[in-house]
């Protein structure tokens, strides 16, 4: 994979001034341990942001707050003008339909084919069968896994499984894609394939927040990098450097 | 999400765990077998009671030599003082005809040896309520021209007690079985929810609403209920048809209970299905509340 190709792609990226994600003085405590310590940041619509830091830095906690799996202990978090701290339980599904999530452990359902995994994301949205068939076909072709549509997760390689997860995350055209270590268990070549795909999705204007340890990927893509350490933001580097 | 999709998801759940589906349906089958059985027994007893109540309830047999005028006087006296709805005079000749009809096809000696002169004239009296039977019988017994008074006090009283007992015992057993079925459904659906925990978690993260997750489970519970109830109804209906000649011919005689009235059976099926839907939905709803925390 030629890393230089990203530069030309970046020209297409649409970054709006509209803030898509807003953390304001956010604290999160689990018992006596502090996972997030006074986090304030703003991510604009269409940005591709890396969230980096050692294990336990608070990356996953931030992503879990954004999907409203957990609530911050204090402070406010806003996603597309929705205050997550004031969101009612019944409104959580609406938020999650705006946010596609790519998991490191894929979270694919053992008893569903590739096609069904991706279709599920649209069934949740209440789309019609014809819409589902059309959108799933389009997305699976986009992630280059259409020929594996009838296979089950156990029949896929790690890279293929991750592509399915990405397809499932983006098929509903979410405003934001959160990726938690999506290249964690993948080999170098496959990892780059996944990143290429996320970059392409970003080029449509989708905001991407990706937690990763992969220094090479971060430094090559030269996107905004937010570094966390012990729950605090230690650097917010727009030059795309991960040291 | 459309109802069709809920059905699709429920179908998938059922297909993928056939043994649990069979266990749930069998549990509902047992409950509804008892429920429909007790309902039919109760209806049968009620009809039997009505049969006895609709027949002449007190029969007074008169001594030889009693004139029609004497009997008419007694008749008028009863009509004037008690809740008597109907009286019917049966002459010696009519009594003979009744006797012959009842003994038709039996030993010919039984009919040949009996003549109208050997049978007493009688008066058949019906009252509005069963409570009026005893006073009427007492009055008749005091009449000097009355030889004997017969009224089915024990049959009616026993039938009333039996109907009441069947209703109480049946109600308790059916209540227990329904509760048992609800808990069975709750357990089985709860178990399935636990098995599908990862899938449910993923669906939630994809933005699935509460109804998207809950409704297929509720439909699944309703399905088990409907299958169990329909199977129980079918088995009972087939058994009733099969045993009709033995029960009706051998035990019930004049009381026409079998074969069962198709409209009654259809009504029972509809009631059973509606109740089954409710039981299945309640069990599943309980399971989703308990295990999904939604």
Shape verdict of chain B: elongated
Mean pLDDT of chain A: 86
Main sheet: strand order of chain B: 2-3-1-4
Strand content of chain A: 25-35%
Our Rg estimate of chain B from Cα atoms comes to 30 Å
What's the end-to-end separation of chain A, in Å? 23 Å
- Global structural class of chain A: alpha/beta
Our measurement of the CA-to-CA distance between the termini of chain B, rounded to an integer number of angstroms, reads 17 Å
SSE order of chain B in H/E notation? Answer: HHEHEHHEHEHHHH
DSSP strand tally of chain B: 4
Question: Which architecture of the domain at 5-106 and 172-237 in chain A would the CATH scheme give at its second level?
Answer: 3-Layer(aba) Sandwich
Q: Biggest interface and its residues per chain?
A: A-B, 20 and 17 residues
Helix-strand layout with pairing:
The complex is a heterodimer of chains A (243) and B (294).
Chain A (H helix, E strand, L loop, with lengths): L4 H6 L8 E12 L2 E12 L3 E5 L6 H8 L7 E6 L2 E2 L8 H7 E4 L11 H11 L4 H14 L15 H13 L5 E5 L7 H16 L3 E6 L2 H7 L2 E6 L2 E6 L6
Parallel strand pairs in A: 3-8, 3-9, 6-7, 7-8
Antiparallel strand pairs in A: 1-2, 1-4, 4-5, 9-10
Helix pairs in contact in A: 4-5, 4-6, 5-6, 6-7
Chain B lengths: L2 H14 L1 H37 L3 E5 L5 H14 L2 E7 L1 H11 L5 H5 L9 E6 L5 H10 L3 E5 L2 H43 L1 H9 L4 H43 L9 H31 L2
Antiparallel strand pairs in B: 1-3, 1-4, 2-3
Helix pairs in contact in B: 1-9, 2-7, 2-9, 7-10, 9-10
Provide structural commentary.
Chain A: This is Cell division ATP-binding protein FtsE. Chain A: Part of the ABC transporter FtsEX involved in cellular division. Chain A: Homodimer. Forms a membrane-associated complex with FtsX. Chain A: It is found in: Cell membrane. Chain A: InterPro entries: AAA+_ATPase (IPR003593), ABC_transporter-like_ATP-bd (IPR003439), ABC_transporter-like_CS (IPR017871), ABC_transpr_LolD-like (IPR015854), Cell_div_FtsE (IPR005286), P-loop_NTPase (IPR027417). The complex is a heterodimer of chains A (243) and B (294). With 243 residues, chain A is an alpha/beta fold. Chain A has a domain of 168 residues: Rossmann fold (3-Layer(aba) Sandwich). Chain A has 8 helices and 10 strands. In chain A, the strands form 2 sheets. Chain A has a 6-stranded mixed beta sheet, with helices on both faces. A 4-stranded antiparallel beta sheet of chain A has the order 2-1-4-5, with helices on one face. In chain A, a hairpin with a 2-residue loop joins strand 4 and strand 5. The two termini of chain A are 23 Å apart. Chain B is an alpha+beta fold and 294 residues long. Chain B has 2 domains: 187 residues, no CATH class; 96 residues, Alpha-Beta Plaits (2-Layer Sandwich). Chain B has 10 helices and 4 strands; from the N terminus they run H-H-E-H-E-H-H-E-H-E-H-H-H-H. Chain B has a 4-stranded antiparallel beta sheet with strand order 2-3-1-4. The longest helix of chain B is centred in the middle third of the chain and has 43 residues. Chain B starts with a helix and ends with a helix. Classes of the chains: A alpha/beta (243), B alpha+beta (294). At the A-B interface, helix 3 and helix 4 of A face helix 8 of B.
């Amino acid at each position: 994979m030629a890393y230089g190709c990203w530069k030309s792609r970046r020209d297409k990226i649409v970054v709006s001034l509209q803030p898509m994600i807003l953390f304001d003085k956010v604290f999160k405590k689990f018992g006596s341990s502090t996972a997030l310590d006074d986090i304030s940041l703003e991510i604009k619509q269409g940005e591709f942001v890396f969230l980096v830091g050692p294990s336990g830095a608070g990356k996953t906690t931030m992503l879990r707050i954004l999907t409203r799996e957990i609530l911050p202990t204090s402070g406010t978090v806003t996603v597309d003008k929705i205050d997550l701290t004031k969101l009612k339980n019944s409104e959580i599904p609406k938020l999650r339909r705006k946010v596609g999530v790519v998991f490191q452990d894929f979270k694919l359902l053992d008893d569903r084919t590739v096609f069904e995994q991706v279709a599920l994301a649209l069934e949740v949205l209440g789309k019609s069968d014809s819409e589902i068939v059309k959108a799933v076909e389009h997305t699976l072709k986009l992630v280059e896994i259409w020929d594996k549509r009838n296979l089950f997760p156990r029949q896929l390689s790690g890279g293929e499984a991750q592509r399915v997860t990405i397809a499932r995350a983006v098929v509903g055209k979410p405003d934001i894609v959160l990726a938690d270590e999506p290249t964690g268990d993948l080999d170098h070549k496959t990892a780059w394939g996944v990143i290429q795909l996320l970059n392409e999705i970003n080029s449509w204007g989708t905001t991407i927040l990706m937690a990763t340890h992969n220094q090479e990927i971060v430094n090559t893509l030269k996107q905004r990098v937010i570094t966390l350490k012990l729950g605090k933001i230690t650097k917010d580097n727009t030059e795309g450097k991960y040291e | 999400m459309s109802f069709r999709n809920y059905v699709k998801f429920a179908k998938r759940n059922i297909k993928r765990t056939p043994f649990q589906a069979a266990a749930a349906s069998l549990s509902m089958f047992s409950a509804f077998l008892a429920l429909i059985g007790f309902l039919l027994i109760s209806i049968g007893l009620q009809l039997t009671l009505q049969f006895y109540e609709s027949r002449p309830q007190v029969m007074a047999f008169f001594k030889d030599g009693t004139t029609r005028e004497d009997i008419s006087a007694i008749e008028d006296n009863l009509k004037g003082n008690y809740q008597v709805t109907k009286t019917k005079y049966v002459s010696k000749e009519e009594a003979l005809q009744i006797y012959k009809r009842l003994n038709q096809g039996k030993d010919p000696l039984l009919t040949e040896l009996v003549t109208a002169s050997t049978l007493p004239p009688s008066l058949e009296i019906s009252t509005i309520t069963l409570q009026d039977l005893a006073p009427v019988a007492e009055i008749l017994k005091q009449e000097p021209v009355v030889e004997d008074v017969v009224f089915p006090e024990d049959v009616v009283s026993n039938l009333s007690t039996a109907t009441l007992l069947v209703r109480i015992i049946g109600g308790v057993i059916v209540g227990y079985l329904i509760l048992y079925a609800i808990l069975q459904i709750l357990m089985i659906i709860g178990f399935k929810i636990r098995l599908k925990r990862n899938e449910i978690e993923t669906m939630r993260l994809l933005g699935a609403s509460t109804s998207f997750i809950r409704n297929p489970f509720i439909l699944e519970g309703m399905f088990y209920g409907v299958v169990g109830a329909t199977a129980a109804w079918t088995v009972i209906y087939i058994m009733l048809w099969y045993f009709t000649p033995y029960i009706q011919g051998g035990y019930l005689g004049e009381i026409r209970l079998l074969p069962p009235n198709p409209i009654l059976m259809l009504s029972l099926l509809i009631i059973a299905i509606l109740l089954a839907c409710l039981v299945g939905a309640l069990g599943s709803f309980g399971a989703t509340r308990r295990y999904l925390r939604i």
